[in-house]
Design a protein that fits this description.
Blueprint: H1 15-23, E1 30-34, H2 72-77, H3 80-89, H4 98-108, E2 112-117, H5 123-126, E3 134-136, E4 139-146, E5 152-153, H6 155-164, E6 177-181, H7 190-195, E7 204-208, E8 230-234, E9 247-251, H8 254-265, H9 268-277
Parallel strand pairs: 1-2, 1-7, 2-3, 7-8, 8-9
Antiparallel strand pairs: 4-5, 4-6
The structure holds carba-nicotinamide-adenine-dinucleotide.
The site of carba-nicotinamide-adenine-dinucleotide has 29 residues, from loops.
Length: 278
Amino acid sequence: RRKVPKPKVLEGLDVESLAKYISSDKCKKIVLMLGAGVSTSAGIPDFRSPGTGLYANLARLNLPFPEAVFEINFFRRNPVPFYTLAKELYPGKFRPTPTHSFIKLLADHSLLHVCFTQNIDTLERRAGIPDDKIIEAHGSFAVQRCIDCKVLYDDDLMKEKVTAGEVATCEECGGYVKPDIVFFGEALPPQFIQTIPQVGEADLLIILGTSLTVHPFASLAEMAGRKCPRVLINLEGVGGIGSRPDDLLLLGKCDDIVRELCQALGWENKLEEEWEKT
Ligand code: CNA
């Protein structure tokens, strides 16, 4: 039988030990890595879940391959599939989840160091997490600009176009307008690059609802220090989490596990109150 190494920082590999660590004075800086799985309970499909994920449902858009919807070269030729998808994902339609409210509580307790998110739905901001703690690594729908001359395009006009299912074009040069969402083949925002070193300062890394397949985002998990416990809260095991002695896998739905953790922390009422506000 293979011997399972004992954790070195956590007392045990379970929710109670995690709560104890979070409540202790050893844990002051928590870094989070979020993916689409934290927003699925809000009604926003993720990419890769079989059957329900966006990639499984893009057939009707006549794409050469699913990822093409987020490829800048494809968008230049045909922006319609992206706009079709944008209409479904557009912010404003969705309410933050209990998991987002848990992150707000971490911020309220001055425990949140950085919340890195791959999500473009802006639900972190909607949940009241302070802007200066959020790094939207793949951009968001907050602003948009022409892909050719880069001139900004009006927010209200963009909303009208997306809602009407029309493609927005630049008023200056006629180029297609695209929200500042990072497509495959585009650089990540400078704030992301600048904030990477803060992962190394973390006392705890919590990874939620991501398949950890998109790089460089996924590689943040490897930048946590050796003494930093890494927690994965996800439907499935991903990205080699489990290879270090203080890696804790909590497999299941984010909201369920977060509620369990809040109970262990004595935060269950605060969580529901916070979520009610959203
Ligand atoms: P992904 O590759 O679709 O993976 C999602 C992961 O979450 C999978 O491992 C699922 O098993 C897991 N999951 C799904 N639902 C739950 C749940 N309720 N509880 C726990 N785990 C769950 O998505 P990633 O975020 O890893 O991929 C990166 C892409 C997805 C980013 O570039 C995003 O921009 C993009 N995306 C964002 C949104 C959004 O903003 N809400 C939606 C869809 C895709």
